[in-house]
Design a protein that fits this description.
β1 and β2 form a beta hairpin. The protein is globular, with a radius of gyration of 20 Å. The chain is built from 13 helices and 8 strands. The protein is an alpha/beta fold.
């Protein structure tokens, strides 16, 4: 592991969490900064390998901690037979937060959830609001089935506009999508939809630039590739939980501040669905940011605009905390 920027905090470690050693990667410039825990997507797709691409400026205001979740990345490599369930993941997350609070002497931790991580994060803050300073949802999942339905209609619209007969035939062969059950057939169809969406820049593409970025990561190991390949199989129970997931079926009441950062060209987790749900959220305070010309990997597509939003959120939270503290002293 190379610390080329000579950061004050730059740690790779395995910590005993909920019975197994799990991988954490810490990076930051000041111990006084708030701690932001990054919950990656997938499930099964650790994003710690891409931290060097987008987060260097983040470290001026946060100590950023990446966790390769149970069933993902370096944690999967270290524990190849420990498969995740939603209950295990929530317990893992709770214990990691306790560890980080103690390590950095913090009362609460910030959670940023990306894609699948936004499902885990949203579920966690409903259950344990007192552990979290505030929540940031990126590529926020509201309803998996609705995501797939809307994303399908969007790519169909562009295919028809382009008179792309070859892609239209591929779409028609899939038949009913997304259907009403999670099974191997759905997963096959989903993969084909993603490729069509990728062709029209509506979803994340695993292209040459992504591969090069991973290979250039200072924490990359060949075993990370194997873990990524194994991810879908290992995370089948999580995918079964994710398929019917729907925040619309739950209360819009939150006890922590809520921020959504959405890509204006994200149709993998369509921003329009998150926008509609966000309007119904009741939280101590909330804000939604729509970043233009950014897709599902919002922080990689527009890193400067994404950082500008994080800085605004951080400044607001600091201001609100100081106002609250001064009021309580009077």
């Amino acid at each position: 592991m190379k610390n080329k920027s000579k950061r004050l905090i730059y740690i790779e470690e395995y910590v005993l969490i909920n019975g197994i050693n799990q991988y954490l990667f810490h990076s930051g410039t000041k111990y006084d900064n708030q701690v932001l825990l990054f919950l990656h997507g997938g499930p099964g797709s650790a994003e710690s390998l891409f931290a060097h691409v987008f987060q260097q400026k983040w470290e001026d205001i946060f100590t950023v901690v990446h966790w390769d979740q149970r069933g993902s990345g370096k944690t999967l490599t270290n524990n190849p037979d420990k498969y995740p369930t939603i209950d295990l993941m929530l317990k893992d997350l709770f214990e990691i937060i306790q560890y980080l609070k103690k390590k950095y002497n913090k009362q609460k931790i910030i959670i940023l959830g990306h894609s699948w991580g936004s499902v885990l994060g949203s579920t966690f803050i409903k259950k344990y609001p007192d552990e979290v300073a505030y929540y940031i949802g990126v590529g926020q999942v509201i309803s998996m089935i609705e995501n797939e339905r809307v994303g399908y209609e969007k790519v169909k619209e562009l295919i028809l506009q382009s008179n792309d007969k070859k892609s239209l035939k591929k779409l028609q062969v899939l038949g009913d999508y997304p259907g009403d059950k999670f099974d191997s057939e759905f997963m096959k169809k989903c993969g084909k939809i993603r490729r069509l969406q990728g062709k029209y820049n509506l979803a994340m593409k695993i292209g040459l630039s992504m591969i090069i970025a991973a290979l250039k990561s200072p924490i990359f190991k060949l075993s990370d590739i194997l873990a990524l390949i194994k991810g879908p199989k290992v995370n089948e129970e999580i995918l079964e939980f994710l398929f019917p997931f729907d925040l619309n079926a739950e209360s819009g009441e939150y006890k922590v501040p809520i921020y959504y950062i959405l890509g204006g060209n994200d149709w993998q987790t369509p921003y329009v669905i998150a926008q509609e749900y966000f309007s119904r959220i009741n939280a101590p305070h909330k804000n939604l940011y729509l970043i233009p010309n950014a897709g599902h990997m919002t922080m990689m597509d527009q890193p400067q605009l994404f950082f500008d939003v994080l800085l605004e959120i951080n400044n607001k939270e600091i201001y609100d905390y100081e106002i609250c503290s001064n009021t309580s002293k009077k």
